[in-house]
Design brief:
alpha+beta; 49% helix; 789 residues
Length: 789
């Protein structure tokens, strides 16, 4: 697994082209492949297709067997560093983890027992190990890698704290071991184990698509053991394995604590990992790389250097050439005629529950019911808007109805598949208004629906904000989670930062979920002791304003039995909510165009430019959707990724919010990428696209429009469309409009963006301070450079 990565820049220069080809020939051969068939296509058709695809390949001799890691006889320590900004304070930014290597992952029954132990120890706020660490004050919150890692041949478990200091490492390790000794001696609370088992059951039962089709998720479950010569189907026999575990637990009441003793306390294969921040990490690595490149250059003869120069020029010439028609014709592709004109719709009925407006979606969900409670927050005063995400997190994560947060966490784990809050905003379909909602979401197995609805009722009507330590811990957790997501998704943060100047919904997105919220949470966390009373007063005021019947819309997604169970439970909830709360005139922030450079510790750039654009109702909106797909797979892909060396370059059109975006991801360039954005629009507005390219872009746009959804996403999406006033007829008209896009309308749509939209477009770049300063030496319109926090 030491070689399982996208490549180390320090090592890549030593790779020869022959090695590269040989690796691909061996390991990317069908000989080394495993095939999984899923769906309702007849198996015979699958096999016929595979036979055609595999014709011409030879059987190669290859071994991709993963050797077992040898077991350690004593624990080890690893001390390493990660980059932070040059001027950033290093105090309280170390991450400490303790990790164990455990059993082979082909042992399904014992792996499921370990999953249950992991869930009981750290899976919820009630977990004894998690609680001990959070309550210790040795760090800010639990590390994001905490839990069981199942995708390796030998599974691992890790737990630790972030936001700590290096000198706390031994104390944290001792606290972890002390907590495990206590569990091994005294056992788990029964409800904690039941909650962990329930979570495991729920995850296996729920149909979840997330970023991948459900079939791919099932494939990964099979591959977890199949890749290591285990039975690929064994892990899918979940109900039988769970029944065996419950039977073992009945016969061995101390089963789970014995697992703690064996796999944690008696297991010497343990690592103490210390990750310390460094102000000079990036500079040192770049300096090493430059020196290594210089050394390699001096080792080459003049002839070898000339060969490299010629090959480089040849490569650039090849990258600039269009793909040959004969090469393109070898690729299998859909035709427009293969795509049905009929559009999938989500069943939606409007009704009322005790005077509260509600939507219901009767959808097969495999015995799970989903409930969304959306409160209108459009008129919340500007000074209170940033507090809404924290109110949502505290409401779902603290005590309620006379119970402390630990007892509430047990109830939530035992009776729901999750309870959380998110904030969302968008533009109405006609582009003339907007909507802003605070949405609480809960999901539960049918048997637990009454309890789940009662839990939601308790947190909304009897939530307790008196536990100051818990409030502080949750604020720190929110800050750290948001902070840790910046660099991996900095292109999305850059888009939020740029778009915030263009519309109220985009401003709210940045204020609630972007850099604005990160800075707000940092300020709250640092000033908590001095401002906790003021914080509680504001949150109480917000809670009184928001959690009222007249602000609420209910959204129910399940099969008919689940809908009936939800409806029955919500009658009681409606009776407990306060009356009143009619929405006043929406509050409106001040918007202004900007060019922003945000400093992050990264060796690459994330460059966003966002334009105001028409919404669904505009006749040109289908052409803009096609234009975005064409730019992503054509001009931007070629110039930003292929020629520019970025990991990704893309264009996105969001007709729901009226935004058109250019984004780059892990980009070695900054000024050059902004120039590509300028040239892309000019090119598209002045160049007539070929029919074949147009058809590809139309098919891609239809693919993004028709993206498959899981049951939860279907219900949620239907609710969002209702807020926007987007009807099925609107969507049908838009989808048909995509089919009918022609080269001329694509040019017209591109022509709409440069003027006057370009004048009001905004730019945001997330990059290292040196890159931003260097860019400002050249750019006519300078970037306003600001720290991330």
């Amino acid at each position: 697994y030491a070689f399982d990565s996208g490549g180390d820049p320090r090592v890549i220069p030593s790779l020869t082209y022959e090695q590269f080809k040989e690796f691909h020939r061996a390991y990317y051969s069908p000989t080394n492949a495993r095939f999984l068939l899923y769906g309702d296509i007849p198996t015979e058709d699958h096999l016929t297709f595979l036979e055609e695809m595999l014709t011409g390949f030879d059987h190669v001799k290859v071994s991709s067997y993963i050797e077992a890691q040898g077991r350690w006889q004593r624990p080890a320590i690893k001390h390493d560093f990660y980059p932070v900004g040059k001027d950033e304070d290093l105090k309280g930014k170390t991450t400490i983890n303790v990790a164990w290597m455990m059993m082979e992952n082909t042992d399904h029954e014992n792996i499921l027992l370990l999953q249950t132990v992991s869930g009981a120890l750290v899976g919820s706020a009630a977990g004894p190990l998690r609680k001990a660490l959070v309550d210790s004050g040795l760090g800010e919150d639990i590390t994001p890698v905490t839990g069981l890692e199942r995708d390796l041949r030998q599974v691992t478990f890790a737990v630790g704290l972030r936001g700590t200091n290096t000198d706390c490492a031994k104390r944290i390790e001792e606290l972890i071991l002390e907590s495990l000794h206590k569990v091994a001696k005294d056992g788990f609370d029964r409800e904690t184990i039941e909650g962990a088992l329930h979570e495991v059951e729920f995850r296996r039962k729920e149909i979840v698509r997330s970023q991948m089709p459900y079939g791919i998720i099932l494939m990964w479950r099979a591959y977890r053991t199949w890749l290591y010569d285990g039975d690929p189907l064994e892990g899918l026999k979940f109900s039988e394995i769970l029944r065996k575990i419950r039977e073992r637990w009945r016969k061995e009441p101390d089963l789970f604590q014995k697992f703690v003793q064996r796999w944690f306390l008696d297991n010497p294969h343990r690592l103490l990992s210390i990750m310390e921040p460094s102000n000079t990490y990036t500079e040192e690595h770049e300096d090493y790389f430059q020196k290594e490149m210089a050394r390699l250059k001096t080792s080459l003869s003049q002839g070898e250097l000339e060969d490299i120069r010629k090959e480089s020029l040849s490569l650039r010439s090849m990258q600039a050439e269009p793909d040959r028609p004969d090469a393109l014709s070898t690729l299998p592709r859909l035709k427009l005629g293969d795509i049905p004109r009929a559009m999938e719709t989500i069943p939606t009925e409007k009704f009322e529950i005790a005077g509260i407006h509600a939507l219901k979606h009767k959808i097969f969900a495999n015995g799970i019911a989903y409930l969304d409670l959306a409160f209108d927050v459009s008129d919340i005063p500007e000074e209170l808007q940033p507090y809404l995400p924290l109110l949502g997190k505290l409401t779902a994560g603290m005590g309620a109805a006379g119970l402390g947060y630990e007892e509430m966490a047990k109830r939530i784990a035992l009776k729901t598949g999750g309870l959380w809050c998110n904030l969302s905003a968008g533009t109405t379909t006609d582009g003339k208004g907007n909507w802003q909602k605070m949405i609480f979401r809960v999901k539960a197995l049918h048997r637990n629906v009454p309890d789940a609805v009662n839990i939601v009722s308790d947190i909304l009507t009897e939530g307790d904000l008196s536990d100051e330590e818990r409030m502080r811990d949750l604020a720190l957790e929110a800050k750290n989670n948001l902070h840790s997501s910046v660099v991996p998704s900095a292109h999305l943060f850059a888009r939020m930062t740029a778009a915030a100047s263009l519309s109220v919904p985009a401003y709210r997105e940045e204020e609630w979920n972007g850099r604005y919220q990160l800075r707000f949470l940092k300020n709250i966390s640092e000033r908590f002791q001095d401002s906790k009373e003021d914080l509680r007063e504001k949150l109480d005021r917000l809670r009184t304003m928001v959690f009222r019947k007249e602000r609420l819309i209910l959204n129910l997604t399940a099969d008919p039995d689940g809908i009936d169970l939800l409806t029955e439970g919500l009658e009681s909830l409606a009776g407990r909510l306060a009356y009143g709360g009619s929405v006043d005139v929406p509050s409106s922030p001040e918007l202004f165009s900007r060019r922003c450079g945000v400093v992050i510790p990264a060796e690459v750039c994330y460059v966003a430019r966002v334009f105001p654009a028409p919404t669904y109702s505009d006749p040109l909106s289908p052409a803009l959707m096609v234009l975005a797909r064409q730019l992503s797979s054509g001009y931007l892909y070629k110039h930003i990724r292929v020629q520019g060396g970025a990991y990704g370059g893309m264009s996105q059109y969001d007709p729901a919010c009226g935004l058109f975006s250019f984004l780059s991801y892990r980009d070695p360039n900054l000024i050059e990428t902004l120039k590509v954005y300028d040239d892309a629009i000019d090119l598209m507005s002045g160049t007539r696209i070929k029919d074949e390219e147009l058809n590809k872009a139309i098919i891609s746009a239809i693919g993004s429009f028709d993206r498959p959804m899981d049951p939860s996403s279907k219900g949620y999406t239907a609710m969002i469309r209702n807020f926007a006033g987007l009807t099925d007829e609107d969507r049908r008209r838009f989808r048909n409009g995509i089919f009918d896009v022609r080269a001329g309308s694509l040019m017209e749509a591109a022509g709409r963006l440069p003027a006057p939209a370009a004048e009001s477009s905004s730019v945001a770049v997330y990059a290292a301070i040196d890159r931003l300063n260097k860019a400002n030496e050249t750019l006519d319109q300078k970037l306003e450079i600001e720290p991330l926090m």
